[in-house]
Amino acid sequence: MKLSEIKTILPALENVEFQLQDGTFVPEHFHVTEVGAVTKNFIDCGGTISKEKTVSFQLWNANDFEHRLKPAKLLNIITLSEEKLGLEDGEIEVEYQNTTIGKYHLEFNGKNFVLINTTTACLAQDACGVPAEKQKLNLSELSSDTSSCCTPGSGCC
């Protein structure tokens, strides 16, 4: 989800709720402690240099159990970030500490914002020596053309 998308969604909501992919919710007393621009300059194992820009939201749970972040307040935080940091419209990456700090993509399911698990991958598989994955077939999908099979008495054996 891009920053422009969340800005369009927030005015129509009564509450801001974040949900993990397993269905559990981020406790409703969470804070958005950071909104920022993150630029990652990196080189992959194949030697290709890349640059990636994202918008980072950091969610944090405190012991102020009565706290509730309303959509208008989050929109104000985003607007202030755009003004003060020159924040561009980029993909949102959410940092949230569950058992450890995780990074998530963000989607909206019509009611809640959903934290989508991220994964790592090799960006230069052709240069890194990882063998290509073999194609898996079910035996039932193989051709049932019996003309290429040996039958008793056909003389092919």
UniProtKB/TrEMBL annotation:
Q: Name one Pfam family in it.
A: DUF6428
Its domain of life reads Bacteria
Q: What's the protein here called?
A: Uncharacterized protein
Which species is listed as the source? Chryseobacterium profundimaris
